[in-house]
Amino acid sequence: MMENxxxxxxxxxxxxxxxxxxxVAIITGQVxxxxxxxxxxxxxxxxxxxQFFREDPDxxxxxxxxxxxxxxxxxxxxxxxxxxxxDPSPAVARIHFLIFCVGRIxxxxxxxxxxxxxxxxxxxxxxxxxxxxMALQILLATTPYW
Length: 146
Known about the structure:
By secondary structure, this protein is an all-alpha fold. It has five helices and no strands. Keywords: Cytoplasm, Fatty acid biosynthesis, Fatty acid metabolism, Isomerase, Lipid biosynthesis, Lipid metabolism, Membrane, Oxidoreductase, Prostaglandin biosynthesis, Prostaglandin metabolism, Transferase, Transmembrane, Transmembrane helix.
């Protein structure tokens, strides 16, 4: 696999996306601490009392951004891995992975910084294009075997 240039490119962009997800998780935790809004009573007790066992709109925004990442990046990881095995053009594959990665990073920035609409939805839509392309190519390659 280490000779497969497409898979190496996929691995690079996937790792960037996983690190981005870790960053959002860390940001969520920091916002929780700053806003004193804890999801569990034991955490609230440790940080000032049960009155801090509550929801906060800023924490919820971070959680939604993270959930959206999981809903989109996990399928990309599957599609990209299978797509890499189809022996696509390395340049075309790299474009697929780059577009998805940039779209997801832009989506997260727009979500967390509450950028003006339609920034977030455009970033989401752009990132979906390479996923649909990879899914279609996977289906076309595997249809003879169904």
